[in-house]
């Protein structure tokens, strides 16, 4: 049971609301519902949910605007749940501040797994702002600013380390290309091609088989993801 965890569902389709409410309540979550963007903003402020499931196609405002307004004051995980499955929609949602993206239709086990990951990430951000990432024989210690593979410390360039730092803080989630470009080259002057080259170089440092990456994965035309660490 999930105890006092509250999920805010934002969707204007009654069958979807009923389906999600039944699935979440069966899993032990408390549920709040909103059928419009304005109601979602009001309920988010009132109920302070632990996770927000947000459809982008709302009757009164675009879901992307809702994400932007929520991110002005809350760090609660936002999982976009929508029929919009294009790469541009995914990128836009992640750029605005969504934590994850599920395209309808989807299964209840996948939804619950995504929610659990989002909750763990939120808890880790509160408790350990400089996490240690471990997966297999790869260890990335952000506080110590050190990386090991097979117990051997790796020497990385500042940009390679900055890339891994950004991905560790979002491990298990896709980080959009645009967000990485802004974080790694805040003054501008770079490109997706430069990012691809950096990813390629970093894989050759951390991956046993760079051509078949186990850790640093590509989401084509969207961004990059560091696989979920072993403790999740």
Number of strands: 12
Rg (CA only)? 18 Å
The percentage helix is 40-55%
Distance between the termini: 18 Å
Low-confidence runs of at least 5 consecutive residues: none
Helices, by number, come to 8
How many independent structural domains? 2
| Strand-residue proportion | 15-25%
Write down the overall geometry. Answer: globular
CATH class of the largest domain: Alpha Beta
The succession of helices and strands, N to C, reads: EHEHEHEHEHEEEEHEHHEE
The whole-number mean of residue pLDDT values reads 88
User: In the CATH hierarchy, what is the architecture of the largest domain at level 2?
Assistant: 3-Layer(aba) Sandwich
Say which CATH homologous superfamily of the largest domain is assigned. Answer: Response regulator
CATH topology label of the largest domain: Rossmann fold
Describe the structure.
α6 packs across α8. This protein has two domains: 6-127, Response regulator (Rossmann fold, 3-Layer(aba) Sandwich), CATH 3.40.50; 132-226, Winged helix-like DNA-binding domain superfamily/Winged helix DNA-binding domain (Arc Repressor Mutant, subunit A, Orthogonal Bundle), CATH 1.10.10. It is α/β, with parallel strands linked by helices. It starts with 5 loop residues before the first strand and ends in a 6-residue tail after the last strand. The protein is built from eight helices and twelve strands. It has helices at residues 14-26, 37-47, 63-70, 87-96, 108-127, 158-168, 177-184, 192-206, and strands at 6-10, 30-34, 51-54, 78-82, 100-103, 132-135, 138-141, 146-149, 152-153, 175-176, 216-219, 223-226. Helix content is 41%, strand content 20%. α1 links the parallel β1 and β2. The longest helix has 20 residues, at 108-127.
